[in-house]
Amino acid sequence: GARVEQIQAAYSFAMPTWVKTNPEALVSVQNCFGKVVAYYRHIGDFEEWEDFNLRVLNISKTRLGPNHRMVMDLLAEMGEGYLAFGRIDESEACFKEALTICEAYPDLKMSEAPWLILNSAGVAFMRGEIVMARLLLDQVMERLAEAPTMNNVVLLEALANYAAIFRATRNLAEFDRVSLQAEEVAKEVWKSEPARVVSPVLALIRSNEELGRSDVADRFSQWIVNEMESIPFSGDDMRGYGLVPRVFLHDCHENGLPASIEMIRPNIVADMAGRASI
């Protein structure tokens, strides 16, 4: 309503001034924009979500230029949103446009391009285009190999995607290989970005369960829950990693993972229930 219009007006005003003179000042406006987008996604209102995003995208392109890196970020976020709403064609178009912009920035080709290609691989997999998904994942691995330092977060996501492909094609030898590699990479990622581990590890747990690799699934599950128990809770749980245990256990419940996983360390649920509310 009126609040959304105010945020859009503020965003429009900020573009020609703050971005050029004081980029940090734009953070508060972007945060408001992000909250509105997240709200529409949460309630599942696709029409409002798309309308708001397209208006902000138009403002960004008009004020900053169609090839600005902030436009790339918006397109990437819209691609993920479209995917969440099941709009595969629109998602693919956003990722492709974002990648085209990304390729024009030498400093982003190594850091952001692998993410965008990885998302495109996910779109191809959802379409059932297994060969294309595999080719795109191979491109991701090539980009990672060319980078001065390995981005283990992207690598972990890529390995989880490979595992999904090998599960679908019943290539068990390759599935086991990437699953074991992903396990080692996950441990490295956990040291610096624990929250980025949960989604790919859950995907790997499901894949192993579906293929009857219950020993690997249980090992993954036990490891991540043990690690989460070691995270110190604080008053900043809402912003920190304290939410990870609840997210993980909620996902276990919603997706019907084995009861043994749900019941591991029940004190996590009790602890978090008393410390934070979502």
Key attributes of the depicted protein:
278 residues; mainly alpha; 15 helices; 77% helix
What does the model show?
This protein has helices at 2-21, 27-43, 46-64, 69-84, 88-102, 106-109, 113-126, 130-146, 152-168, 172-192, 198-210, 214-229, 243-254, 259-262, 267-275. The protein is mainly α and 278 residues long. Helix 9 runs parallel beside helix 11 (198-210). It is globular. It starts with a helix and ends with a helix.
Assign the structural class, choosing from mainly alpha, mainly beta, alpha/beta, alpha+beta, or little secondary structure. Answer: mainly alpha
Q: What proportion strand? A: under 5%
Q: Compute the number of helices.
A: 15
Q: How many beta-strand segments?
A: 0
- Low-pLDDT regions: 233-278
The run of helices and strands is: HHHHHHHHHHHHHHH
Estimate the global geometry from the Cα principal axes. globular
Gyration radius, rounded: 20 Å
Helix percentage: over 70%
Topology diagram in text:
Layout lengths: L1 H20 L5 H17 L2 H19 L4 H16 L3 H15 L3 H4 L3 H14 L3 H17 L5 H17 L3 H21 L5 H13 L3 H16 L13 H12 L4 H4 L4 H9 L3
Helix pairs in contact: 1-2, 1-3, 2-3, 3-4, 4-5, 5-7, 7-8, 7-9, 8-9, 9-10, 9-11, 11-12
Short description:
The chain has 278 residues and is mainly α.
